[in-house]
Amino acid sequence: MQKKFIPSTCLFILFFFTSSYVHAQQVDTLKRKDSMPAAKVDSLIKIQHSPRKAAIRSALIPGWGQAYNKKYWKIPIVYAALGITGSIFITNIKTYKDLKFSYAAKYKASLPAPDPNSPYPGPYQDSTDYKKIKSRYLPLSLESLRQYRNQFRQYIDYSVLFFVVFWGLNVVDAVVDAHLKAFDISPDLSMKIKPAYNPFTNTAGISLVFNFRH
């Protein structure tokens, strides 16, 4: 019997993909001139770098939106997720067809042999396809073949579902990255450690100084 591709395999891939997605939300540093207001720069960047374009490109071709956002390192993750789920789908289809054929062949071979004196109306035994059954399925009973066939039919549905989910995550990731292109984490947003003196307690220490852009 072939290895079963159960939904937990896809769940593991989904966890890996979403974990990479969460930890990969890095924001690009924007170099701005003091003479240009920050709000105006944000507007210009949003016009030049459109989340809508990123979404459409990722929806058409997985990874295209990531390339548009210049997040090239994410493209292998996208194709690994889609490739693995696609491979599982193809394997499940092939196994399902083999099980379906084996079940039908065994069922026809288990029917009564033709007997002209028998009142049995038919259909009668047909062993034509029995010899074409793969050796791994021959020891299985009719009931086992039927159960495995139905089980792999469900696996096909699961693999299609996960493939669609990963395709959607690819689009969402591209849109989020495109929106974050205009997010400001310039050098003016910083934290510095400086020595400090408290005149009330007459003690020295250190202080944390945060700088914010106005």
Notes on the structure:
- By secondary structure, the protein is mostly helical.
- It has 6 helices and 2 strands, in the order H-H-H-H-H-H-E-E.
- Helix 1 packs parallel to helix 6 and helix 5 (about 75-110) runs antiparallel to helix 6 (about 140-180).
- The longest helix is centred in the C-terminal third of the chain and has 39 residues, at about 140-180.
- It is elongated and about 115 Å long.
- The N and C termini lie far apart (about 65 Å).
- The model is unreliable at about 20-35 (pLDDT under 50).
Which helices and strands, and how do they pair?
Elements: H1 7-23, H2 38-48, H3 51-60, H4 64-68, H5 75-109, H6 142-180, E1 190-198, E2 203-211
Antiparallel strand pairs: 1-2
Helix pairs in contact: 1-5, 1-6, 3-6, 5-6
Structure at a glance:
The protein is mostly helical and 214 residues long.
Key terms for this structure?
about 210 residues; mainly alpha; two-stranded antiparallel ribbon; 2 strands; about 55% helix
Helix/strand/pairing category: mainly alpha
Quick one: biggest sheet? Answer: 2 strands, antiparallel
How much beta, percentage-wise? 5-15%
Total number of beta strands? 2
Rg (CA only): 31 Å
Principal-axis shape equals elongated
User: Which sequence of SSEs, written as H and E, runs from N to C?
Assistant: HHHHHHEE
The N- to C-terminal Cα distance equals 67 Å
User: What count of helical segments does DSSP give?
Assistant: 6
Helix content: 40-55%
